[in-house]
Amino acid sequence: MHLPDRVSGAILAGLGALAAYGGSLLPGVPGQDVGPSVFPMVIGAGLIGCGAMVAFGIGRSFEAPGPADAEGAAPGAPPPRPASRFGGLRALLPPALLILYVLVVERLGFLPTAAVLVLVTALALGARLRIALPLAVAAPLAVHVVFSRLLRVPLPDGMLPAPW
Amino acid sequence: MSELLEGLRLVAATDVLVAVFAAAVYGLVVGALPGLTATMATALLVPITFYLSPIAAVATIIAASAMAIFAGDIPGALLRIPGTPASAAYTDEAYAMTRKGRPEMALGIGLWFSAIGGIVGTVALMVMAPALAEIALSFSSFEYFWLALLGLMCATLVARSSPVKAIAAMLIGLLISCVGIENPAGTPRFTFGLTDLLGGIEPIPALVGVFAISEVMRAMVSPEPARLPRRRFGSILRGQWALTRRYQGQMWRGNVVGVLIGVLPGAGADMAAWVSYSVSKRFSREKEKFGTGHPEGLVESGAANNASLASGWVPALLFGIPGDTITAIAIGVLYMKGLNPGPTLFTERASSMYALYIIFIMANVILIPLGIAMIRLATLVLRAPRSAVLPVIVLLAAVGAFAIGNNLFAVVVVAAFGVLGFVMERNGFPVAAMVLGIIMGSMVETNFVTSLIKSDNSLLPFFERPVSAVLATITAGALLWPVVAWALRARGRAGAAA
């Protein structure tokens, strides 16, 4: 997901233009110079400006080497794998699982949904089934005890109510 | 005096003491695991704090964050992987010391000077906050507008990235804060007809997304860190007193730098450590020894990152302006618990403030025995594979976000901000600046519009009131500084080329 500065600058400027346009459509408040449209328009203008500057590389000389560069690789660590075409998409797995959780948790119930979430994340991070399976059983139960029993959060029962 | 006693009584309650201890252990474990930051530890604590008494809720945040910042030093010294970003500045130095066969020394410095830094930071908070509260009592919406704006500018100035990208990140945060009807006019903005967006975007799920989910996303595309070899340690604290005497000046300088950076909005422990380490190197008489396992820089920056933690609470308690990302979360908890930030907190709720100071001191004192225990157990804790820890983090993020308002939309917010945080970080946009924008956006706008209504649409009072004028000047300076710095640098480069 590393974008060239030209692309990220263009995205910022586009976002700014949308914000400013969207803001300009908002109705004003009678008797007040500064209505609800002013802040989005100011922010939009700022984003357009910043986007242009990012795209043209102004201020890049200030960029210190990020912590990632400063850390370097630990000695003995394997060299980072060359990113395959779909390698970057793996990163999208956690948010995708969260969306899945939102979509099915009410129907399926907390325990099965949470078990799927934990199992898939663990396997994607390279856990063996020997670890991932017990974790997928134990973690949802433990979370259920703390949040549903102790903190009284109404976690949905769905198809599989908790045994307590 | 009676308020101090009342504060002591508040802290001595069983639930507070249990909360401090449990949060301390939690903070040590989370901080020591690479990739789990102190801010993430705090963000995941929030849903739990809802069910605690106000003092116990604040106590968990204080204890967990203080422990996590120290614990980040442990994998830094042993594996050369900082446990939290706050340790990144001196990880190489600490690891070099371990390679020389003195891991006890490296960890001991981290522990001892963290505790000292934390206590000095607390004393600074105790002295500064009530004094500033006296002045702040006379502030009105004009001053608050400038303060909020100044806070936003500070966050972009101190970011370790291009100021343009930092400002862009802050503007994104401001734009996010525009969503909803929580604006002075009560007009729905950018809600796209969705009821869930009417109330605006809740900061806490957004922070959980930015600091927890994007971290898991990063782990998905990076290799598993090396395992820690089993190791036995000698005495952890031996020789620390000699170091304290030898590097007294550096220690105090680190403390002062830490306190100052903590007070600056948006800049927290990681910034304090980077600045202190470079200050230490710059003014050292033994510059050539830096990077080879030399204690001087460790002393100074180890003290600085913990000192910044307590002083970060100064603007948070006084103005509701977060001093760092941890207090950004803490402010939400303060509001939730009826401890609304503001100068009156120090007059009307003085006993609660005393309780808060006592908890800070207590957390930094128990840091030493718990820290030693954690160092001895580190080989055990650090063997927990990432693939077993991070799935639980994802689950806790989902359940925690839901628990805040029993609303599944919060989980969507977590996912969306996870992606946003991940993409921004990859492209060099500092997420801390965006977080500040989200939290302070409505503060800037509300105070601006309220002031205009008071002054009948006249801008003059923004510059006429004495404190306002000073704040306006500082803000303008902060705004112009990157341009000046750029011009100076360009001139310097031209001079060097000629």
Total DSSP E strands of chain B: 0
Order of helices and strands of chain A: HHHHHH
Largest interface: A-B, 89 and 85 residues
> Could you give a short account of the major beta sheet of chain A?
none
Low-confidence regions of chain B? none
Into which percent range does the helicity of residues of chain A fall?
55-70%
Strand percentage of chain B, roughly?
A: under 5%
Give the helices and strands of chain B as they follow along the chain. HHHHHHHHHHHHHHHHHHHHHHH
Number of helices of chain A: 6
Mean pLDDT of chain A: 81
The helix content of chain B is over 70%
Instruction: Estimate nothing, just give the exact number of structural domains of chain A.
Output: 2
Number of domains of chain B: 1
Radius of gyration of chain B: 22 Å
Task: State the secondary-structure class of chain B.
Answer: mainly alpha
Low-confidence stretches of chain A: 64-83
Secondary structure elements and pairings:
The complex is a heterodimer of chains A (164) and B (498).
Chain A: H1 5-24, H2 38-55, H3 67-71, H4 93-108, H5 110-124, H6 129-150
Helix pairs in contact in A: 1-2, 4-5, 5-6
Chain B: H1 2-11, H2 14-32, H3 38-49, H4 54-71, H5 73-79, H6 91-99, H7 103-136, H8 141-157, H9 163-178, H10 203-220, H11 240-246, H12 248-263, H13 269-283, H14 295-311, H15 313-319, H16 325-336, H17 345-348, H18 350-381, H19 386-405, H20 409-426, H21 431-454, H22 461-464, H23 466-497
Helix pairs in contact in B: 1-18, 2-4, 2-18, 3-4, 3-10, 3-16, 3-19, 4-7, 4-14, 4-16, 4-18, 5-6, 5-7, 6-7, 7-12, 7-14, 7-15, 7-18, 8-9, 8-21, 8-23, 9-21, 10-19, 10-20, 10-21, 12-13, 12-14, 13-14, 19-20
Protein name (chain A): Tripartite tricarboxylate transporter TctB
Keywords (chain A): Membrane, Transmembrane, Transmembrane helix
Pfam families (chain A): TctB
Descriptive overview:
Chain B: It comes from Caldovatus sediminis. Chain B: Residues 17-436 form the DUF112 domain. Chain B: Keywords: Membrane, Transmembrane, Transmembrane helix. The complex is a heterodimer of chains A (164) and B (498). Chain A is mainly α. Chain A folds into two domains: 5-62; 87-150, no CATH class. Chain A is 59% helix and 0% strand. Chain A has helices at 5-24, 38-55, 67-71, 93-108, 110-124, 129-150. The longest helix of chain A has 22 residues, at 129-150. The two termini of chain A are 44 Å apart. With 498 residues, chain B is mostly helical. Chain B has one domain (2-224, 233-497). Chain B contains 23 helices and no strands. Chain B has helices at residues 2-11, 14-32, 38-49, 54-71, 73-79, 91-99, 103-136, 141-157, 163-178, 203-220, 240-246, 248-263, 269-283, 295-311, 313-319, 325-336, 345-348, 350-381, 386-405, 409-426, 431-454, 461-464, 466-497. At the A-B interface, helix 1, helix 2, helix 3, helix 4 and helix 5 of A face helix 9, helix 10, helix 19, helix 20 and helix 21 of B.
